[in-house]
Amino acid sequence: MDDVFKALADPTRRSLLDELFKEDGQTLGSLERHLPMTRFGVMKHLKVLERAGLVTTRRRGREKLHYLNAVPIRLVHDRWVSKYAEPWAAMLTGLKARIEEQTMEKVFEIYIKTTPERLWQAITDGEMRSKYSFGVGISSDWTPGSSYEAVHPGALPREGHPDPPCGRTPWRAHPERHTLTGAGRQAGGGTLKGTSKQAGVAISRGENLEVEPPLRLVQSFDALWGEDVRAEATSRVTWEIEPVGDSCRLTVTHDQLREGANEELFGGWPMILSGLKTLLETGELLTTPGSLMYSATAPPA
Predict the structure, then answer these.
(1) Sign of dihedral through CA atoms 196, 202, 203, 206?
(2) What does the DSSP assignment read for 160-218?
């Protein structure tokens, strides 16, 4: 049994078993095409799997065919999963598979000529954030486990305009309005543009799950701008900054989204990131459909 655990501990060998599960009876050449390694490397991994009894072989003329042998895995299962626990284990693994299959992620990448520190500031400073995010600022003390809130200081956009801060339809429900006070006014060292104890529209809020300045920020995300997006489950947004010479690669991953989730949740990211790039590289504001729509709603600074 030790050989089985040793064989399964390597991700490459697990990949080989996955390939044999999809199509049993493959040759060495066929398996080699699925892996980014030499023929000799694949042969070494197959030898380990054969010694563990997880792969069996059979000659067919000049070809050597490889077959998945699931018996050792079944023996491991039978040793630690009792007949009474098996139905529960099967139910829970099935539930896990269904949940994971029904989520999706959206990934956005952009290169910006700036430093990681300056890019981090643009993401976490409320006044800078509002310049490229349709007037929506953000407030938090930016410590792990702390909360954040994104607020638009003005009124609702006009009817018929289709772009909210992260999506494609207006804030047509009844967004939460409140007064910004204390920590709610602070946003990475600044106040939300045009606000000082002033009513605003809460657009989103969540928790700072991981805060690693100036390279990584992971946040939960709850949309608040409309009843339809409020009905969606909490999702997650990850900001990853990678220095590349005199520039940075910024990758924004919006995941843990329900399969078929409302496109308002993620549809506006390309405009937001394009506006961020323009601001940091030129100091100017980028005109987008979203910026045109919401510029009229913000009160004067």
Answers:
(1) positive
(2) T----TTSSS---S---EEE--GGGGEETTEEPTT-SS-EEEEEEEEEEEEEETTTEEE
Residue 172 half-sphere exposure toward CB, CA atoms < 13 A: 12
CA distances from 114 to 38, 80, 244, 277 (A): 40, 54, 10, 9
In sequence order, the 6+-apart residues with CB closer than 8 A to the CB of 222 are 204, 205, 206, 230, 234
> What is the C-alpha separation between 261 and 256, in angstroms, rounded?
10
Per the DSSP assignment, residues forming a β-bridge with 222 are 205
Taking the model in full, what pTM does it have?
Answer: 0.57
CA neighbor of 276 nearest in space, from 264, 286, 289, 290: 286
Q: State the amino acid at position 257 in one-letter form.
A: L
Question: Residues of 195-226 as b/e, b for ≥16 C-beta within 10 angstroms?
Answer: beebebbbbbbbbbeebeebeebbbbbbbbbb
Q: How far apart are CA 179 and CA 82, in angstroms?
A: 58
Domains parsed from the chain with CATH numbers = 2-101 (1.10.10.10), 103-295 (3.30.530.20)
Q: How far is CA 264 from CA 14, 134, 160, 163, 269, in A?
A: 38, 14, 15, 8, 10
Q: What is the pLDDT along the chain (301 residues), one digit of tens a residue?
A: 788 899 999 999 999 999 998 988 999 999 999 888 899 999 999 999 999 999 989 888 889 999 988 888 877 877 776 665 667 677 777 777 666 667 888 989 999 999 999 999 999 999 999 999 999 999 999 999 999 999 998 744 444 443 444 544 344 333 444 433 333 333 333 333 333 333 578 999 999 999 999 999 999 999 998 899 999 999 999 999 999 999 999 999 999 998 889 999 998 899 999 999 999 999 999 988 877 877 655 444 4
In degrees and rounded to multiples of 5, residue 89 shows phi and psi of -60, -45
